[in-house]
């Protein structure tokens, strides 16, 4: 009995490797995005803390101009950092979408090759079953013919 051999098995392996590569690329970009979101949230928390500390320093009654200037510089720096992080997130969004689309396309190619393999394997099994049935019929006819002699 012959075994089924998918002629495009090597091609399928290459497509699976390409799909895995696309998935790794997407995961890399998503981890960068997560890091940016974390950094943005940390910076926003620092900004809120700095604002709270500056307000508390002003509410005591005695204003120190140097402290206010330092606080204002810190606030400006934190706001600029937030704007930069938000800008990086916006620039990263198209890259994420591009990699998602590449992964979807690679997944579609792998699925179509796997379906082709399944269809060919079923066709092979059906043909093998048909041949086995014909062979059994032939054996039965030979046995019947021998008994009739």
Automatic annotation (TrEMBL):
Cellular compartments annotated: Cell membrane
Keyword DNA repair: no
Gene Ontology cellular-component annotations: bacterial-type flagellum; plasma membrane
Entry coiled-coil feature ranges: 30-57, 96-137
Signal is among the record's keywords: no
Any matching Pfam family: FliJ
Membrane topology: Peripheral membrane protein
Biological process terms in GO annotation: bacterial-type flagellum organization; bacterial-type flagellum-dependent cell motility; chemotaxis; protein transport
Highest rank taxon of the organism: Bacteria
InterPro entries according to UniProt: Flag_assembly_chemotaxis_eff, Flagell_FliJ
Main location, first listed in the record: membrane
Keyword vocabulary terms for this entry: Bacterial flagellum biogenesis, Bacterial flagellum protein export, Cell membrane, Cell projection, Chemotaxis, Cilium, Coiled coil, Flagellum, Membrane, Protein transport, Transport
Family from the record: Belongs to the FliJ family.
Record's protein name: Flagellar FliJ protein
Organism: Blastopirellula marina
Gene from which the chain derives: fliJ
């Amino acid at each position: 009995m012959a075994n089924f051999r998918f002629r495009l098995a090597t091609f399928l392996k290459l497509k699976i490797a390409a799909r895995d590569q696309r998935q790794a690329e997407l995961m890399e970009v998503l981890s960068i995005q997560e890091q940016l979101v974390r950094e943005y949230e940390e910076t926003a928390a620092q900004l809120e803390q700095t604002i709270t500390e500056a307000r508390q320093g002003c509410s005591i009654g005695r204003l120190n101009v140097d402290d206010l200037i330092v606080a204002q510089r810190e606030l400006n720096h934190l706001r600029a950092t937030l704007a930069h992080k938000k800008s990086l997130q916006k620039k990263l969004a198209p890259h994420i979408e591009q990699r998602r689309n590449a992964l979807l396309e690679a997944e579609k190619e792998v699925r179509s090759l796997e379906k082709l393999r399944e269809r060919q394997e079923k066709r092979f099994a059906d043909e093998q079953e048909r041949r086995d049935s014909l062979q059994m019929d032939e054996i039965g006819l030979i046995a019947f013919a021998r008994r009739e002699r």
